[in-house]
Write a structure and sequence with these properties.
By secondary structure, the protein is of the alpha/beta class. It is built from 27 helices and 28 strands.
């Protein structure tokens, strides 16, 4: 017995140590690097193209690595997306994530990861909230998207999208005698863009508002006919697109008479033709943003992809990783706990040389370099016009006397001479109007000076007047429908007592309490809001521990299970419409963040709207309640509130989750389909009734008009309020007094709680019975009852038991001619029949280990001298079954088993805490096992 315990302790210790073996091996010189990339013949970073370069880099570093005791090996794993609707990097269901997850579960994740290049795949690996949390360096030649910015373990060896966005921000505000101040720009989002172009243009679209204060308008073009229409107006414009010179040629061939004064800015980073080839006539009015000419190779354009910038970057990633690990070996690693600290300390702010030239990584592990802005001179040669250092963010003019095709010594602006004269007239007229209006405004200012000064004043509520509530005083308030969300602290608000009232403290994360004049005016306007269907705003309070918030009424929202009849639903919608109608008529004018979690209920069962105001402090957000026009261009409007009301009304009517649709369940996909609708229809949630009544049809028509794609066709809240009042009147609910209405709501809520308690009790009993049934299937009945009552099971000695062992003869040979799934099916078929035979005898099945089957009789329930007879009868039944059994995948091949039976004393007890097992110990067990192993096949 002592030997068995010692052996069990040793095995447990070895299993725990093996969990850390792989990570510890990273610091003793044995290094495994996994390469996970797309496996296709289209992507320039396909694993078939990258593999030779990586192996070449490993071989080139092997000699110097061996000196420092570093042994580097590489494991290549490709993944395919041919079975998905979207192929390549466009697929969000990235199999590379599953591959890495399986490697991690097997302890083979290695010390570093090369790849993936796709942004979607990389994000699911490096994001700290939803990622795999691998705590090891991830080196990618790609992952361009802004969702992968500032990730702890990620190092990107090609310029990410934020570097391109930084170039445009600094280039647009740069001013000299060559570059004009463009006021208008067109951003062309080509269909089926490459991975790099998709994220580069996407980043520009997201940050387009930051190009320059001088940029008055930027237009996003998504269709070819939109681009052709703008190019055909022969006006001076600036067009930004990403692609190759072939895209420019195709564009110009499809559009006749393009004015040379139209300037194209082409983003083409991974193309070396600008340094070793002549330009064409189509590129004469094109500026090209590309990488510097530091390559020690020529890009293969034949289609074989023997060398390109992606391949070179993964080659150089091996050099970087080898350099880092050699440095760790040389300097020692007593302060390094895991590969996470290696990512944070050795892949940031470093430089090294590779076949792509000099690499400089910034503090976030992203590559910095000097971009070149190239133009075509009059001799059809490419020349560098500007350079941009992404590290210092400086724009430098390189060609002070450029040989442009334009007659002037500068790039053309986006205004014609006629337009300029017209603009001069308009400016002069506007100046005169402004002067007159300024005089009138000055007079008005002095007349209202006192009032404006009062509006500017604002003082915080003293933190001493805010008394935090004790835990037992809290009312549980959930702002989410799901039960799981109730445990999430982000959905609970801080509560306190102020002026003898229980209030909510809501944090303002975007301010330190120093309000601007415009913000103070809005806060004063919020103080004046006092309406039955709006929560009351009391003021702001600033605490010493860096928490700043505003104080609101305490309210409770309806959970999903609340029973709501038709009258109740209309009443809730009517309360929301009344509150929004009042809010739109007030000085606040717009809610901006209207959603179902902001529609709460007070202790008098009246619906109130919360979280309005603070539009000068908080930024617009994108959510399922946000209207399509605001998803495309973040802002707020009254018509946007009407759309949000429609989504809330659909939730109330259908009693489903937000924006429920049977066609789509993914939140991100819903937002995308609303933001970019198809040409035939607009995506909206389901709103269908079986045999709807007249009033239900009216409400459905109202909701559909409120979420119309055209904001001008949506009704205002005054009209919505009137429509709902008419529906309420038709149901004779307007005749109820306030008390009758309140009593009816409370009775309805009480009935719902009773039904809910009964339902939850029944669910609890069903789950308890199911758990008991499962326990009795895993352990003997007396053992289960002992565990439930005392939590422990005392081991017991049985004087007379009979133990049965059997295994399959030639099981290894059968496995050799079978697939793993066929082996599982074979054992399942055999053991299911064995189990059914056991039900006819007084025996207990102990366990199955592979092809071994162990049964005992005489325990845990003693049966006198019948144990031997029961085991023997069971063994004969099993032999009879095996004589008729046929393998489904190997028909005609007989299956034999060996059986060993022995009687005697043994000990039995539960071993282990997690996944406990009822085990037998003693010489009787060993003798029965030996009799089975030396027996004849039957």
């Amino acid at each position: 017995m002592d030997y068995a315990l010692w052996l069990f302790s040793c095995v447990s210790w070895s299993l725990l140590q093996s969990c850390h073996f792989m990570k510890e091996s990273c610091f003793n010189g044995t290094l495994l690097m996994n390469v996970i990339l797309l496996d296709d013949d289209v992507s320039p970073w396909s694993i078939d193209f990258v593999k030779p370069a990586v192996l070449k880099a490993v071989e080139s570093e092997s000699e110097i690595n061996s000196i420092d005791g570093v042994n580097l090996s590489v494991n290549f794993r490709g993944f395919q997306t041919i079975y998905y609707l979207k192929k390549g990097c466009s697929s969000s269901a990235c199999e590379g994530v599953e591959i890495l997850n399986s490697l991690a579960n097997a302890g083979e994740e290695g010390c570093a990861l090369l790849g993936p290049t796709c942004t979607y795949a990389t994000f699911q690996m490096v994001d700290l909230e939803i990622g795999l949390n691998l705590n090891m360096p991830i080196l990618s030649a790609g992952s361009f998207g802004m969702s992968c910015d500032f990730k702890r373990d990620l190092t990107r060896l090609l310029p990410p999208a934020r570097k391109i966005s930084s170039f445009f921000w600094n280039f647009w505000k740069h001013s000299d005698y060559i570059k004009p101040s463009w006021e208008t720009a067109y951003l062309y989002k080509k269909q089926n863009n490459t991975e790099d172009c998709f994220w580069y243009i996407n980043a520009l679209e997201v940050s387009s508002g930051n190009f320059s204060p001088r940029l008055k308008k930027i237009v996003i073009l998504r269709k070819d006919d939109e681009l052709s229409a703008v190019l055909g107006n022969n006006k001076r414009e600036m067009f930004i697109l990403c692609g190759t010179p072939d895209d420019i040629i195709d564009l110009k061939n499809g559009t006749l008479d393009i004015d040379d004064k139209i300037v194209f800015l082409l983003i083409d980073l991974y193309n070396d033709r600008y340094y070793n080839a002549f330009s064409t006539d189509a590129m004469r009015n094109v500026l090209v943003l590309t990488m510097p000419n530091t390559r020690q190779y020529t890009i293969d354009t034949s289609g074989n992809n023997t060398m390109n910038d992606y391949i070179a970057a993964y080659h150089d990633a091996v050099l970087l990783f080898s350099q880092v690990m050699r440095k760790i070996q040389d300097t020692g690693f007593s302060q390094i706990q895991d590969m996470e600290s290696v990512s944070a300390n050795f892949f940031r702010n470093v430089s090294f040389k590779g076949i792509a030239g000099e690499y400089q990584l910034d503090e976030h592990g992203d590559r910095d370099l000097i971009f070149s802005l190239i133009y075509t001179n009059t001799d059809n040669e490419y020349q560098i016009l500007y350079e941009f250092n992404s590290s210092t963010r400086e724009v430098t003019l390189k060609d002070t006397s450029p040989s442009f095709i334009w007659p002037q010594l500068h790039l053309p602006n986006d205004q014609d001479s006629k337009d300029f004269q017209f603009n001069v007239i308009v400016i002069a007229l506007c100046t005169a109007i402004v002067a007159i209006m300024g005089t009138l405004a000055f007079i008005f200012y002095w007349q209202n000076r006192y009032y404006r000064q009062m509006q500017k004043r604002w003082s915080h509520i003293s933190s001493q007047l805010i008394i935090p509530l004790e835990v037992n005083e809290w009312n549980t308030v959930s702002l989410k429908i799901e039960e799981d969300a109730k445990e999430n602290s982000s959905y609970f608000l801080r509560r306190a007592r102020y002026d003898k009232k229980i209030v909510i403290l809501k944090e303002l994360r975007l301010t330190d309490g120093s309000f601007s004049e415009k913000q103070r005016i809005e806060l004063n306007a919020l103080l004046k809001i006092d309406y039955n269907n709006l929560t009351k705003f009391y003021g702001t309070v600033k605490f010493d521990h860096d928490y700043f918030g505003h104080v609101l009424d305490d309210n409770i929202s309806y959970p999903e299970e609340t029973f709501m009849d038709w009258q109740f639903k209309i009443s809730v919608m009517y309360d929301i419409a009344k509150g929004m109608s009042y809010l739109h008529a007030s000085s606040i004018a717009i809610h901006g963040r209207l959603k179902s979690t902001n529609c709460v209920v007070d202790n008098r069962m009246v619906v109130k709207i919360a979280d309005f105001g603070f539009n000068t402090i908080l930024s617009p957000c994108k959510d399922l309640w946000t209207s399509p026009e605001h998803l495309r261009k973040p802002r707020i409007s009254q018509k946007g509130d009407v759309y949000s009301f429609a989504i809330i009304s659909q939730e109330i009517m259908m009693r489903r989750c937000t924006f429920y649709s049977s066609l789509c369940s993914d939140r991100i996909e819903k937002l995308a389909r609303v933001q970019y609708p198809s040409t035939n229809s607009f995506f909206r949630p389901d709103l269908n009734f079986d045999n709807p009544s007249e009033s239900e049809q009216e409400v459905c028509m109202l909701i559909r008009s409120c979420w119309d794609e055209d904001p001008d066709k949506r009704p205002d809240f005054k009209k919505i309020e009137i429509t709902l009042w008419k529906i309420v009147s038709q149901d004779n609910q307007e005749q109820e007094s306030y008390m009758e209405n309140l009593i009816r709501r409370l009775q309805m809520y009480s009935r719902n709680l009773e039904c809910l308690v009964e339902e939850r009790t029944a669910l609890y009993k069903a789950e308890r019975d199911r758990a008991d049934c499962l326990n009795f299937m895993l352990l003997p009945g007396p053992v289960v009852r002992s565990l439930k009552e005392t939590g422990i099971v005392e081991p017991e000695l049985f004087d007379e038991v009979t133990i049965y062992f059997s295994d399959i003869v030639g099981f290894t040979t059968l496995c050799h001619f079978s697939t793993p799934m066929e082996v599982v099916d074979m054992l399942n078929d055999i053991y299911k029949n064995f189990d059914s035979i056991l039900d006819n005898h007084d025996v207990y099945k102990v366990e199955t280990i592979g092809d071994a089957y162990m049964v005992v009789s005489g325990l845990p329930r003693r049966n006198g001298n019948r144990h031997a007879m029961d085991i023997c009868l069971m063994a004969l039944d099993i032999l009879a079954f095996m004589g008729t059994f046929q393998l489904s995948h190997l028909p005609g091949i007989p299956v034999w088993i060996r059986i060993g039976v022995h009687s005697g004393p043994c000990a039995a007890g539960v071993v282990g805490v997690k996944m406990p097992r009822y085990c037998l110990f003693g010489d009787t067990v060993n003798t029965a096992s030996r009799m089975e192993s030396t027996g004849l096949r039957e």
